[in-house]
Amino acid sequence: MLLLALPKKSAKRKKDDPVYKKVCDEIDEEYKFGGDYTLCFFCWKPIRGFIEHHHFRGRVGDYYTDKRYIVPGHWLCHTVIWHTYTMAKLKVQSWYQGFKSRLYRLDPVSYAKLIYREEKYAKKKTGSHDKGSRG
Asked: Model's pTM, two decimal places?
């Protein structure tokens, strides 16, 4: 059995962990929308069990605890689909269009990055490449 060591937490991360937990708890409550379960930001269905959190702007610096860019998600939607699927497989998910709409309202910058990924995929798919000034 292969065991992997997790990197040690920095002093700042250790200090931020209680704040991060509080922020995640607040986010989970905000995404309940009157129900008993937190809704997954990706598929917009109730999360029963462990809630993961996605950081659209990353986990570096103040973004680690910035509620504006952290969303709850199912393990399947977040870790498996969002972080591992190709754009082709991602775009055919039943929840993808609703997710894009929610992302646009949440964070236009992250939405623009997603559109860029889509366009890059479309160019690759069609074989058209804009070589620009590189010739």
From this structure: 0.82
